[in-house]
Amino acid sequence: MDPAGRSEATGGMDPAGRSEATVGSDPRGGRRPGSRMAVDVLVYTVARILLVLVLAVAIWVGGQLLGIRDFPVVVPALFAIVIAFPLGIWLFAPLRRRATASIAVFDERRRRDRERLRARLSGDGPPA
User: Which residues cross the membrane (predicted)?
Assistant: First the structure.
């Protein structure tokens, strides 16, 4: 092992050609950027859907309180969707930024892996 903790036998690379020091690492301390991305995007998506549901129920209850008894469910649902678009962007900005950052980390890693693979296939990369 060298001082950075890489194996001398493999030249510091894992079998896939990635640096052993960065395999499975995530800048935010997680193990896999793909799973972190999935969680962040899922949390943001669920928050947006819950906002639509809460707004739809609030509009429906408001209609009931105003005495509108024959109120189709699709009307508050459509109004909730229209209202939730801009409101969700504003309310869930931190979640959106976190999801976007996770996607960027994942995309950057895929781009680097693809470049390494192309270099190895063309014979420019380190021996496997």
Answer: 41-61, 73-93
